[in-house]
Write a structure and sequence with these properties.
Elements lengths: L19 E12 L9 E12 L3 E5 L6 H9 L6 E6 L3 E4 L11 H11 L4 H14 L15 H13 L5 E5 L7 H16 L3 E5 L11 E6 L2 E6 L12 H17 L8 H5 L2
Parallel strand pairs: 3-7, 3-8, 5-6, 6-7
Antiparallel strand pairs: 1-2, 1-4, 8-9
Bound molecules: adenosine-5'-triphosphate.
Length: 272
């Protein structure tokens, strides 16, 4: 078990269930002011959250509420000031901004990350074949990352986060830039990971996705408010036509609003 913890004044009790893949208790985080006359930013003020194996957890909240900060702390890439974080097993983290090497091809990127995860060549090839097929980017395998569109780069970003089938998968707005088919493929993939026992936490802005999660945490003023998405809450697991239309719209709003920094046009994608 890989346990990481910090802080002496944890106000909560760690969830010690053997099925828990990450447990955050009473986590606090403030970004200190680094310049004169600027204020420090208190982001988390006693945030508590648990993710179990085979559970898909949503983290929602308005812009700037601290979702990415929380996820960075869960992933272990960001320090927290107080509280406890316990992790069990391996972790995959898909940050909001792809952290890939521009001059590597897609194949070389799989090889690099797979080797870092300690996977054998056969395991890397198997994972690459699975993910390039499911997310439909097989034909870009010999392209350099810098020549991919934003959506295809995001497919690579997502794939390398989960190619080693971690116990815990942390996804920060993973479908930014995805087209509708890929958006649906992403959720099929998430379902498959769920059945394989992976605990998945996803930062999402799309309200109509709520019924895809087992639990939703709403982050507001530094606190996480937990909402169980049960069968008796009036939400159907089969989306209605209205839901589908709304999700489709929301997905494209998400895509359009995501900024052009990571995005290339189709024409750019074709150029080498
Ligand atoms: N490195 C940093 N230094 C100082 N302040 C920061 C830093 N990173 C984030 N913040 C501030 O912390 C707050 C939370 O930011 P964070 O990115 O975690 O929010 P978010 O909920 O993920 O936002 P969004 O929905 O826009 O992605 C914001 O006020 C942000 O400006």
């Amino acid at each position: 078990m890989d346990i990481a913890s910090k802080g002496d004044d944890a106000g909560g009790t760690a969830n010690s269930s053997g099925d828990t893949v990450v447990s955050a208790n009473s986590v606090e985080k403030t970004y200190d002011s680094v310049l004169p006359f600027t204020r420090s930013v208190e982001v988390l003020d006693g945030a508590t959250l648990h993710v179990e194996r085979g559970q898909v957890v949503g983290i929602m909240g308005e812009n700037g509420s601290g979702k990415s900060t929380l996820m960075g702390i869960l992933a272990g890439v960001l320090d927290h000031d107080a509280g406890e974080v316990e992790r069990a097993g391996s972790i995959g983290w898909c940050p909001q901004e792809p952290r890939l090497y521009d001059r590597l091809t897609v194949d070389e990127t799989f090889q690099l990350f797979g080797t870092a995860y300690g996977m054998s060549d056969d395991e890397i090839v198997e994972a690459r074949a699975w993910l390039t097929e499911v997310l439909d980017f097989e034909r870009f395998r010999d392209r350099q990352i810098r020549h991919l569109s934003g959506g295809n780069r995001q497919k690579v970003n997502l794939s390398v986060a989960l190619m080693h089938e971690p116990d815990l998968l942390l996804l920060d707005e993973p479908y930014t830039g995805f087209d509708w088919e890929t958006f649906l493929a992403f959720w099929d993939l998430t379902e498959e990971l769920r059945t394989r026992g992976v605990g998945v936490a996803i930062i999402s802005h799309i309200i109509n996705e709520r019924d895809r999660f087992d639990v939703v945490y709403e982050l507001h003023e530094g606190h996480l408010h937990r909402q169980e998405i049960g069968d008796d809450d009036g939400l159907s697991s089969e989306p209605t036509d209205d839901d589908v239309a709304c999700e489709r719209t929301a997905s494209f709003i998400d895509e359009a609003g995501a900024g052009s920094g990571q995005r290339a046009t189709a024409g750019q994608e074709e150029s080498e």
